[in-house]
Amino acid sequence: MTSRTLKALVDEAQEWGPLEWWRLELRSFVGAPRAQHTLVVLAPKEAVRGEHPGLSVGSVVQSLAYLFLLIAPLIGAAAMLRWLVAGSVYDFPLALAGILTLISLPITGWSELQRRRHPRAAAKSAVRSNSLMHVLPGLASVIIALTAGRDLLAGGAWAWIVVILADVVIYAAMFVRGNTIKDGPQNPHDNVDQSVKEIPADQLRGIIADRDAAIDLLVERGLIGAATGDDARATAPGHLALTLAPEAGSAYYRPDQV
Q1: Could you tell me if 168 and 142 are in contact, meaning their C-beta atoms sit under 8 angstroms apart?
Q2: Would the pLDDT of 254 be above 50?
Q3: If you write DSSP's letter for every residue of 56-82 in order, what string do you get?
């Protein structure tokens, strides 16, 4: 198996260009996955391929949890709508909608906790979509329950309405709050800086030292000029590729999207 060190990357290179700068920076943060991920968002796909670990057990579990978070209120609202159209008193699905929402609330809480611990700017479109996929189905479920199903609201049925409304209020507040945290990152470039700040000082010094050693090797082998080497070593961690090869960055990132 080929070594995934920075030296190995330099050894493999016949010439050095924009993609190689991105690959070097991505590989330098392999031990700091949160920082690497913020760079992946900005990096060209050709550079990401082979430099980012991709799927892992943790990422798959997290993705499934977030998928459930998105579809839970939709399933509940769909069940309520089906009941409205063709249901009977015996299959009133308010409890199903409430249970699905109740299960999703801890995932929402964990997501918010991570947002506070590791603040990141998100795309406006993503925040709007996530919020509306809870607010609109939740309101639909509650309206159906309070109108067509009002005669069936006995015992603990009201508790499910409270649970669903709580979820609606939470996501309505997220919609109003927007895609950034005050005094936190405001765009993907700020996300890179924030993720670098979160790296322990000793680890960050090691990352910079390894990166600079690779740059020295590039100069020594004539793959880049001495002046370029000086510019590269002077860049802040996380800004190497953004500074020396911005033209190769992700074409799908635009400032108006965040």
Answers
A1: yes
A2: no
A3: -HHHHHHHHHHHHHHHHHHHHHHHHHH
User: Helix 157-177 crosses helix 57-86 at what angle (to 10 degrees)?
Assistant: 120
Structure tokens at 153: 């609201």
Residues ≥6 apart with Cβ < 8 Å to 26 = 36, 39, 40, 43, 47, 48, 51, 52, 241
What's the confidence (pLDDT) of residue 89?
A: 74
pTM over 0.90: no
Neighbours of 196 (CB within 10 A): 20
pLDDT tens-digit readout, 152-179: 998 889 999 999 999 999 999 999 998 8
Q: How far apart are CA 133 and CA 131, in angstroms?
A: 5
Residue 176 carries which side chain, given as an amino acid letter? V
Give 147: exposed, middle or buried? Use CB within 10 Å, 0-12, 13-18, 19+: exposed
- Unique residue bearing structure tokens 């961690």: 237
Residues whose CB falls within 8 Å of the CB of residue 162, separated by 6 or more in sequence, listed in order: none
At a CB cut-off of 8 Å and minimum separation 6, what does 67 contact?
Answer: none
What would the two tokens of residue 182 be? Answer: 């005050």
Q: What angle do CA 81, 73, 165 make, to 5 degrees?
A: 95
